[in-house]
Amino acid sequence: MKERLKEFISKIDADYADIRYEKMVNTSIVYNGKELSDVGSNATDGYVIRVLRNGGFATISVTSPEDIERAIVIVMENAKLLTKESDKKVGFTFPPIIEDEVSLELNEDPRQIPLDEKIAVVNHYNNLVLNCRDVQTTLMNYGEVYRDKYFVNSKGSYIHERIITVGINSRIVTKKGNLVQNGRASVGGSDGFFRLKNRDDVFLNKAKIVSQLLDAEPVKGGTYNVVLDPDIAGVFVHEAFGHFSEADLIEHNPSLLKKMEIGSQLGSDILDIIDDPTGRGQIGYYKYDDEGVAARPVTLMEKGVLKARLHSMKTAASFKAELSGHTVAEDYRYAPIIRMGCIYIKPKEKTFDELLHLAGNGLYICECKGGQTSGENFTFGAQYAFLIQDGKLGPMVRDINLMGNLFMTLKNITAVSDAIKLAEVGGCGKGQLNIKSCLGGPHILIKDALIGGV
Amino acid sequence: MEKLLDIAKKKSDEAEIYYLSYHENKIDFENFSLTQLGNSIQSGYSLRIIKDGQIGFSYTKNLLDRNGLVENALSSLKGKVKAAFSFPKASALKKVTVYDESIEALANQRVIEDLKTLCGFMKKHLDEKGQLNIAAEFGSRSIKMLNTNGLSVEDQASFYLLYPNILFPNSYASMAHLINSTSYQTVSEVSLLMLVNLYNKALPEICIASGRLQVIFSPDVIHALMWRVNSGTNAKSIYEGISPVKDKVGRQIFNDKLTIFDDPHVGGRPDSRCFDDEGVPTTIYPLVEKGVLHGFYNNLDYAGKLGVKPTGHGFKTQMWGGEPISFKPMPSLTNEIVLPGDENINDMIRKVKRGVLIIGSLGAHSGNIPNGDFSIGLNPGLYIENGEIVGRVKDAMIAGNIYEVMKNIISIEDTVHEAPGGRFPAICFDDVMVSVG
């Protein structure tokens, strides 16, 4: 493959070109309720070519190798068109030339586990949940994605990296009368099948919570002091802050760029935020991004001060910043864009109980149910919450959606707990779906957060 | 494809091959300037087989090893997934006009020139008060299907999507105009000026108190409600017993002003189809007529499980995109349409003493969708006072349940608009909870 990709690159007359070939093997086992609805393992593949020529930067993805010569003609024409029609010429910051073969380091290679054994594991968790009180149905989804990625660029880099992620993602639905409630429980990671074993507690605990939701009262809309659990603190930092650390999202938005000026005090002085794709085992792990840049941890915020952003080769040149290795594609159908790898708030010294005490009266909000951002405004849903009454946990409430203004909220984070937990499955829908986007954090306390309610 | 079908036929009781190919061009303008050009040329094959009453499935992007693809489908039979259906036979299909061959000759240069003209016009009229982003996508796709029961169908469609949007400061909240067509189109200057006018009215940020208000959902936000309607009327939800309207066919579930249907045959809309991704002929299908629940849409699998006739809604789509050939067909709608009412949008606004016009939503995908609950950020929500838009509401959300809120319809706009998820009019609801930070 290396020689083949080099041959394609040699046909491109440009200042810079790279080509990525990616083969994915997806293994899927899906239970809908009692029924096994999908089992299989399939391979798909494709190529992505990127060209920079005289300040014009264009990309193309193509399935068939027979189409590559046509694709090169199209991408070159588009690069020329961009040179002619763009107001701003594109430049790149180039990484060092790399030649590397990155192998997997696994505790139980999922590819070596017989399909029957995988089905048995998923079936076991599914039956556990189906036998719980009030459970109406389940969606129990085993997903194993093996990526075999080859990268070659015109500077001389060659990288062959293999990544395998594995997880069981479940949706548990309970019903009482006409009221339906649901919640998600997930296990997984990037370092082997062992992560899926002996996890009964995760699924049983969630089934119990989703049952309890049937008797929980809807939350009353309004402003609350809120303690966020590690999952939802991670979603907050991903949605509300992280996306605006992605340089491509603010490069052409002057008003946001001004707000997100490096060196600005944006958060309270207890807030340190880091993105680090290099932690082994977490779902977002990779060594090189899809531009052939080595990933590194980036301290985005320190003591509330904006310190850095996540960059591509293009934005690093535009912002005169260092490369960070955060440019990743969903798969072979897409040119890479800037993505978070694994974002979290750095833990501090307070305990969870101290956070509840500091909140006084408010809400303890747990586990995410989707989030979205739009500039300084963000929103995310939570699976459930507990009232905090005089610093103690009270009854469960449901239908939680939190909305806020990023800049106000960052300053309203008044306490951070001492233990960190990372999510075991990923997911971010910035134009392309990234199932390897990891997040997490400690518990955090936010003063005066807006909760939508009925 | 024929060779593949022959191989599959020899090793199974029934087989079906689905082929999808597409090419697309993407052009992005950000802050009035051309920033990106991208292309994609993609294709792939899916194979389904039925053997001994069980279904097998496999897929590939490059058909290099036909035997391997069949073997892969056979090995998936290990799961013993029951097939509650047979693949359909050939039948007459409605002619649906979705292909304009001129899209094949449409050059990036021409689109860029037109978008530059659009940028110049908007720059002049916005008077440096906002930034304009534009996303354009165009190209064509082709679907071919064969099965061992004699089905042989194909469908070609062209598409041209244009989404100029004016961003509010410090935000990606915007005023937008959507073109979703099978042919190249430009936005009229009248439409652009209306957009600028509304944007200017919405520029002041206004703090209001929380409370229950009249709320107008603009066409661009109706999908947040339809998402919940579609969950409740999906045959999968019925089979699983999680739809709140499972036993309510023929009963009034919404206000009698509301009629919702799926029309796969709308000419000039790229998603229109004469057959679904299982080869079943599509038909116009009412979900709700004058507030009364009509029925549930399905695919072959759930039609079989529920013992009802297929409605032609088996499509290879998923909520967050993904590789279509890797999906099994699931119940999904094509062109969801809400019938227009009898009020002009300006009159609808004029009649609101104190309320909100929602232009965009944040977090429509979160919350308890099966139960019909929604809780969405206003992104933006325009504040209406004494029949006039006076600005946009700062940091606010609305929340409710569709089976309650959609009983309280005050009026429906007399025009349907191209919008995310379908063609919708604006709808005004009474007594919706608005929470403000």
Description:
The complex is a heterodimer of chains A (454) and B (437). With 454 residues, chain A is of the alpha+beta class. In chain A, 22% of the residues lie in helices and 40% in strands. Chain A has two domains: 2-215, 2-Layer Sandwich (PmbA/TldD fold); 218-452, no CATH class. In chain A, strand 6 (158-176) and strand 7 form a beta hairpin. Chain A starts with a helix and ends with a strand. Chain B has helices spanning 2-11, 66-75, 108-126, 189-202, 222-233, 235-240, 300-306, 345-350, 402-405; strands at 14-30, 33-51, 54-60, 131-147, 152-167, 174-176, 179-181, 205-206, 211-217, 260-262, 285-289, 292-293, 314-315, 330-331, 336-338, 354-358, 361-362, 373-378, 381-385, 388-393, 396-401, 409-412, 417-419, 422-424, 427-436. Chains A and B meet through strand 1, strand 2, strand 3, helix 2 and helix 3 of A and strand 2, strand 3, helix 2, helix 3 and strand 18 of B. Strand 3 of chain A pairs parallel with strand 2 (33-51) of chain B.
Topology readout:
The complex is a heterodimer of chains A (454) and B (437).
Chain A: H1 2-10, E1 16-32, E2 35-53, E3 56-62, H2 68-85, E4 99-102, H3 115-130, E5 135-153, E6 158-176, E7 179-189, H4 200-212, E8 217-218, E9 222-228, H5 230-241, H6 247-250, H7 254-259, E10 273-275, E11 298-302, E12 305-306, H8 313-319, E13 327-328, E14 337-338, E15 342-345, H9 352-359, E16 362-374, E17 377-389, E18 392-398, E19 400-405, H10 406-411, E20 413-416, E21 421-422, E22 438-441, E23 444-452
Parallel strand pairs in A: 4-6, 8-18, 9-16, 15-22
Antiparallel strand pairs in A: 1-2, 1-5, 2-3, 5-6, 6-7, 9-23, 10-11, 10-15, 11-12, 13-14, 16-17, 17-18, 17-19, 19-23, 20-23, 21-22
Chain B: H1 2-11, E1 14-30, E2 33-51, E3 54-60, H2 66-75, H3 108-126, E4 131-147, E5 152-167, E6 174-176, E7 179-181, H4 189-202, E8 205-206, E9 211-217, H5 222-233, H6 235-240, E10 260-262, E11 285-289, E12 292-293, H7 300-306, E13 314-315, E14 330-331, E15 336-338, H8 345-350, E16 354-358, E17 361-362, E18 373-378, E19 381-385, E20 388-393, E21 396-401, H9 402-405, E22 409-412, E23 417-419, E24 422-424, E25 427-436
Parallel strand pairs in B: 8-20, 9-16, 15-24
Antiparallel strand pairs in B: 1-2, 1-4, 2-3, 4-5, 5-6, 5-7, 9-25, 10-11, 10-15, 11-12, 13-14, 16-19, 17-18, 18-21, 19-20, 21-25, 22-25, 23-24
